[in-house]
Structure formats: C-alpha cells, structure tokens
Amino acid sequence: MGKAFGAVAGVGAVGSLVAMKKSWDPLPSVKAAGFTTLDMSIYPEGELITEKWRGKPIFVLKKTAAMIAKQTESQKARDIVVGDAHFMLAIGLCTHLGCIPAYIPAEESFLCACHGGQFNWAGEVTKVPPPRAFDIPPFKIEGTKLVLGEVGPEYQKMKDSGITL
Amino acid sequence: MAHFTEATSVKDWLNQRLAIEKVEKVMASEYWIPKNINFLWAMGMVLAITFALLLVSGIFLLMYYQPDVRTAFYSVNYTIMRDVDFGWLWRHVHGVAASVVFLVIYIHMFTGIYYGSYKKGREMIWISGMLLFVTFSAEAFSGYMLPWGQMSYWAGMVITNIFSLGGLHLDGLVEWIRGDYVPAQAFLTRFFMLHVLLLPLAIMGLIGLHFATLRIPHVNNQDGEEIDFDAESKKYLAGDKAGSKVMRFANDFMSKDLMVVGFYLIFFFYLVFFQYGFALDPVNFDPADGLKTPAHIYPEWYFLWSYEILRPFSVNIGLIAFGFAQVIFMLLPFLDRSPNAIPASRRGAFSVWFWALLIDMIVLTAMGKLPPEGIFSTIGLVAALAFIVLWIALPFITMNEKKA
Ligand code: HEM
Ligand code: FES
Q1: A34-160 is classed in which CATH architecture?
Q2: pLDDT tens digits for B188-216?
Q3: In the prediction, which pLDDT does B249 show?
Q4: Ligand 2 pocket, residues with Cβ under 6 angstroms
Q5: Which helix (H) or strand (E) holds A140?
Q6: Which domains occur in chain B, in start order?
Q7: Cβ–Cβ < 8 Å for B61, B90
Q8: How many angstroms separate the alpha carbon of residue B133 from the centre of ligand 1?
Q9: Contact residues on chain B for A113, CB-CB shorter than 8 A
Q10: What is the chain B residue with the closest CA to A99?
Q11: Of A26, A100, A130, which is closest to B180 when you measure between CB atoms?
Q12: Over pLDDT 90: what percentage of chain B?
C-alpha cells in the first residue's frame, strides 16, 4: 500500500518538476531571434564600435597596421580576417561576471570597472579576475559581410582549438 | 464527539471551539522570558515590525507597479513617485525598510554570537535564523530588479552569472534562470513573481519556524545562566514576582519590547522623511541599458562584505571563497566546540575572535564600496583571507576553552 502510494506520488512529483523546469526555459521566440548581419567594410581603423547580438554587446575593432604587425601567435589565432581587413571581434562582456569593459584608446586596452579586470586590444586578459580572453560569438564570413549566430569554418576552427568557448 | 455547552459569552463560545485561553497562555502570558536581558533582545520584535512595514508598503507599490521591461522604470519613477498621492511615501518606506532590516539583522546575529545563543538546545533557532537571512537576501535582490534601472540590470547580469560557477561554464543554467541570453522580459517577470509571492511566503513560513524553535529552549540571557523555567514560573505564579527570574512574554516583556520599537520607529521615519537617499542608488535612476555598464557597480551596503570576498581572487577561487562565506555562518553551532554558552567577554580567546570577525566584516564592507585599485585591493585581499582564517581557526580556539 505504502509502496503503491509512493510510486504514484513519485511519478506525479517527477512530472511536475519536468513541467516546472520547462516553463523556465527561454521561449522559442527568444531563441529564434538570434542572427545579426554586419557589413565589415564600413568600420574605421583603431576605433572600437559596439554592435548588438542576442541583447549582448559585440565589440568590433578594426586593427591598425601597427597592431597587425605586432601580433603574437596567440593573438593571430583570434584574428578575424575579412577581405584584407583584420578584426578583433568578440562578445563585449567581461568573462568574469559579465560587465561591459570600457575601451581606453590611449592604452589600447579594456578596463572592467566591476572587479578591476583588464584585457588588451586583442581581447586577451592582462589582469584577473577574468578567467579567459573575450568570448568570440559564432560567426560566418560571407564576402564582406559577417553573420553572427551562424557557425562558419573559421569559427569552427577557433572553437575546436579552444580559442573560444 | 466533544461536548459543547451553551456559551456564556463570546469568549466562552470561542474558547469551547478554539481553546483560545490555552493558546493565549502557551503563546503569551505563560511564555516565560528571563528578566536578565537588555534592549538587544528587542531586535527580533523590531525585525517583525520592519517586515510588516515592508509588507504593507509593498502591497501599495504593487497596485501601480508594472512588471514589463518597457514600462517598469516609468511606473516606479514616474507613476508611483509623482502621480500617485503619497506614492513616494510607500516607496521610501519600502526602500528604507529593505536597507535598515539588514542593519537590524546583523545586530541580531552578532548579539546571538556574543551571548552564545546558538548552543545548548538553541541550534535550531540559529539555523532557522540563517535561513531567514538567506531568503531575505534573495528577497532584497529580487526587489532590486523591479525598478529596471541601470543597477537593477547590471546587478541582475552579474549575480545570475555567478551560477555559471566559473570554470564549470554552466551557461545553460544561467540562461535557464534568466529565460533569455541576457536579463530581459522573462527575467523581470519571474523575479517579480519571486519578490511578491514565493519569497514573502517562504519568509512568513520561516518566521513561524523561528518562533517555534524559541518556544522550548526559551531565549538566552545576559549571563548565559541556565534557568529552570518550570521552577521560576511556579514561583512567579505563586505570587513571588520580584523573586522569580522570569516574567511573562505578554504584557510584561511586550511592553519593554514595544518601547524599543517606539524609539526605532522614530529613527526609522526620520530616515524615511529626511534621509531616504541612502536607500535609493542614484545610478538606478537611469533606465536599464544592456549596452552600457555603469562606471562603478557595487551591491547595496549589506552585500558588500561577501562581494569583497569574491572580488580579489581569480574567478574559481573567488567563487569558492564566496560560497564559503555564504554557508559558514550556518555551521556556527557546530564549529564552536566549547561547552560554554556565556558572553564572549568571559570566554578568553573567543572574545578576541568575536571582535576580530566584527571588525573584519566592517573592513570588508568598506573596501567593497571602494574601487578595486591599489591599496584598497590589498586591504580587501587581506581582510578576505582573514575572514576565512578566522572561521577555520574557530574550532581550534574553542576546543581548548576551559569549562566556566
Ligand atoms: C522581505 C522583505 C522585503 C524586502 C527586503 C524587499 C526589498 C525590496 C527592494 C530592495 C526593492 C527595490 C526598492 C526600490 O528601488 O524602490 C523592492 C521593491 C518592491 N517591492 Fe519589496 N521587499 C520586501 C517585501 C515585499 C513585499 C512583501 C511586497 C509585496 C507583496 C513587495 C513589493 C515590492 C514592489 C512592488 C517593489 C517595486 C517598486 C519599487 O521598486 O519601488 N516587497 N523591494
Ligand atoms: S565582471 Fe569584469 S572583473 Fe568582474
């Protein structure tokens, strides 16, 4: 008797938990609105422009000739090349807890006001607490355009080699 | 079936059906309170009154507040603050009470620690109290989201990101909590639900539990004396009120309690009318903007100490330290190995520990407010390490304490 009661109650409890869990999931409409196309030919050199994708800021920095010349191997691996232009393109949220770091052009670096984290112009961490370089959003290069939210071969390569999450 | 007789009065009618006289005795007139206590024992009543103020002011705010990302900010800052007659009063009462309630909670907690009121049968009082602290924290955080200003948004972003648990990268869990990639409509509506229904319900249940845990061990006293409540109450009821070590909860202790509450309310309404600014962050008077982080973000003052424990470390260690700070107070009754439940002043090394912890938490609070640069970073790091060391040292300090 007790076991039968327990079994019925158990099925009911698991069922309700599944329903509750699912009700908290992001809605289909939220998930669907996930693509943004950027025209990469319009960005000025050396200036940080912020775009928006899935409600998140996207940093786009067209690298100057000086930056391209001094890139290290690890910085090259994060480099996004569209035509003959090189970009630092990343989700503009601190990898610590998600504040938007401010770009300081004079120092060519980013400072996060929340807990004092710092990143260089290539998006790599120069001061903790952030645990890793800026995340790079899924992207696909189409001529001079770049589609955010779609996975192209260049992005897949970065993901496979662990350059971004 | 029970036997009912014709009632001689309304009281008798109710008494036959609900035993109100017996309930009144158990809960009030024969609930015995030691005489040897001071105003710090009134903090529980002050907290109950403050919760009532939050509830009443919250109900009035709820009549005009709109949980929609497009209108929330204006419904608070325009409709409630300017259109609704006395709307500003409810908002100031609500904001000031939400801040002051934590001040009183901290006083209440440290009183308990000082007098050893978490030991010898009072462990459940302490644990239920800590559960109240946790739910109050969640209540304050969810309420802070509602005006949908810049601080609401960015605090929501940072705190929900904590659930990715650093190196574990549980981004799916964070998106599940938010119902979106970033805090947006789904996030606001669910935190609204938590703030006005689920968490207040939990708080009311926990307040009931907290009171129930007090009933058997009774409250402690200034000397940690073990009072024989049966013997002392008999003495009192036999007429020796002066010789007995106890008094009735109602009306004797209540009248003392309410005097403290009276002074508290004067102070409280002084804040509401003349000094409310501290409870309303100026940055939160800018509407939420997902593309712009305010220059400095910091939590409300009552979360600063635990925030400062998170900040100086790399992400994983910071989260472990933060998690430690959240649960460690809960374990106090089991980490204190001493048999003595007496005031800290008479407990040698524990007395040093008590004051060191209090000062350390004040330092952490101050550093949490300052920008994380230079000397402040260093002081914050030292204070955060000191907090952890103090708690790890506690069992060893108290183990060697002599029986008083
Ligand atoms: C347990 C105690 C409570 C705490 C600590 C608390 C805390 C807060 C805080 C910090 C805010 C933001 C204040 C502001 O910016 O004005 C807030 C807002 C609000 N609270 Fe509460 N609250 C509590 C209980 C309640 C209850 C019981 C209700 C209603 C049933 C309620 C309804 C509201 C509403 C509608 C708002 C939004 C209006 C506004 O921001 O001014 N609160 N609460
Ligand atoms: S969110 Fe950037 S350092 Fe914490």
Answers
A1: 3-layer Sandwich (2.102)
A2: 999 999 999 999 999 999 999 999 999 99
A3: 93
A4: A 94, 96-99, 112, 114-117, 129-130
A5: strand A139-142
A6: 31-292 (1.20.810.10), 298-404 (1.10.287)
A7: yes
A8: 16
A9: 293-297, 371
A10: B293
A11: A26
A12: 75
